[in-house]
Design a protein that fits this description.
376 residues; mainly alpha; two-stranded parallel sheet
Length: 376
């Protein structure tokens, strides 16, 4: 694979998930009163994240135990994720309205965290830094690169230091035997950090990780009778592979490693993969083209059953957990808007649930930014 960018090339800013053209189109659609963008904007504005009175709650140490561990309570995990979404919300509101108070609020939230956070601990540190880190970089890109936001350079530098020291080590740690939604969410954060900090090495490593994980997560029949195993995961016999794929033994186009766990986690992975590919697209790298067939097949399969089609016996024993979130706007926008591809099931699912809001983790306001908005 070719290098993403020549080592002396400049990154495009803003260019984490959403670029300037898309922000301009979103603003124009809202001001013209067009739907579904106006409803999406109003939902965002009227959410708790859009209030001028929003107050961040930063922590020095964010401690997120995995699973059900009542003796090890979470410390700052929800607050961090929500504060990152609030910063991104305020940044988008500033872009749409031009009201500097929103930029000031986004800066206030980001400055509060960069002044205090030092570490993430406990079993879910990787996932926590992935979700919060990916959202922080989207907010920071808009505020840093939109005229009139007024973010002082010393605070920008401090925020960069926060990303490098409190997030990057966790989101770049290799986790070959983890469920793929972790790896993809972590890569989503890493590529955003690479762009925001203008770090080619971090950016390129994120591309490499994406290229390794996506074929090992979203199955296509051309892979052979069984899925591709993640490198160094130790899945060297059928029993281990079946367990890793949550009991699935029949493989057809579009099945994901976590489909039989639940659609929620498969949706997280579709969202994260799309976020990574979208950010790369804004930097001149067509990751979408390398995995289009996998993502398209997975989006169509999960959308069909999410909307109620009876699952066949070969898929998860005929029982699927239909709990997908607002995860397909970015991918559908690329497939339909840029490529002219037909994805009828995914289109119906996205259209039925517009305007998409936020999952309160790492997906937020993507009807506003990406519905019918291919940008450049």
């Amino acid at each position: 694979m070719a290098r993403a960018l020549p080592p002396d090339a400049s990154f495009t800013h803003p260019g984490v998930l959403v670029n300037k053209t898309q922000l301009d189109v979103a603003r124009e659609n809202v001001h013209a009163g067009k739907q579904p963008w106006l409803r999406a904007y109003l939902d965002m504005r009227d959410s708790k994240y859009g209030s001028y009175k929003y107050r961040p709650e930063p922590y020095e140490s964010v401690d997120c135990p995995g699973g059900d561990q009542p003796n090890r309570p979470a410390h700052g995990c929800v607050q961090e994720r929500q504060d990152a979404i609030a910063a991104y919300t305020q940044a988008l509101l500033f872009s749409v309205t031009g009201k500097r108070q929103h930029a000031v609020k986004a800066r206030e939230i980001m400055d509060a965290w960069s002044a205090k956070i030092r570490r993430h601990t406990e079993d879910d540190a990787g996932l926590q830094t992935a979700w919060a880190g990916s959202t922080w970089t989207r907010a920071a890109e808009i505020v840093r690169h939109t005229p009139g936001a007024g973010w002082p350079q010393d605070r920008v530098a401090r925020f960069e230091g926060m990303l490098r020291n409190a997030y990057l080590p966790a989101v770049t740690r290799e986790v070959p035997d983890y469920n793929g939604n972790w790896d993809l969410a972590m890569t989503d954060a890493a590529i955003g950090i690479g762009v925001f900090t203008n770090d080619h090495r971090v950016f390129d490593r994120a591309l490499t990780r994406f290229r390794a994980r996506v074929p090992a997560y979203f199955y296509l029949e051309k892979d052979g009778r069984i899925p591709i195993a993640p490198a160094r995961a130790g899945l060297d016999d059928p029993a281990k592979l079946t367990k890793y794929w949550f009991g699935q033994t029949t493989f057809k186009d579009g099945v994901s490693q976590e489909t039989c766990r639940n659609f929620k986690h498969a949706g997280y992975s579709l969202a994260a993969a799309s976020h990574i590919a979208e950010t790369a697209w804004h930097q001149g790298v067509d990751l979408y083209g390398e995995v289009k067939d996998r993502l398209k097949a997975a989006a169509e399969l999960h959308a069909r059953y999410q909307e109620g089609e009876k699952a066949p016996a070969w898929l998860c024993g005929g029982k699927v957990d239909r709990n997908m979130g607002p995860d397909l706007e970015v991918l559908v926008n690329h497939l339909e808007g840029r490529l002219g591809e037909s994805v009828p099931a995914a289109h119906r699912l996205v259209a039925r649930h517009r305007p998409a809001g936020t999952d309160d983790l790492f997906v937020a306001w993507e009807t506003l930014t990406h519905a019918g908005n291919p940008g450049v």
